[in-house]
Please model this.
Amino acid sequence: MIYKNEQSIKKNGSYYHLEVSAEIVNQFEKKRATRLICTIDDKVRLQCGLNHSGDGNYYIMLAKRYIKALDKDEHDMVSYTLEEDPNPLGVEIPEVLEAFLAQDEDGKRIFDQLTDGRKRTLIFSILRIKNFDKQVQTIQDFLIAEHEKQQAKKRKW
Model:
């Protein structure tokens, strides 16, 4: 499904967003858990998820860099399309993580048991790090912590 619409950019505190009604969200196969590709004014294309607005509807957050690229501000009209992201993670796996998982069976097993959200958390945390060794250390620390959480849950049962 591809959804097309026009609306003004909203701002809530420090972040910009586009609103998406529950009626539209419920048309996607995975409903609110759908990862999306949002294309705005045929200039900006971003992979995103839906955030609950608290009134039964949803919104897509827009980083300031996207607002700047569009040369828009709060209340400016934009046209946009939403389509399901074919990548269930909604983000590419960095090369360093792929290499790590190919070499570490235990790490891969732990990674494969994570929810897509936890996988994204790991990916975004290593993308901010420029030093290769620190990226690898962050991956190891994250997976060890996740493994410990999994073990603690098993002990509770």
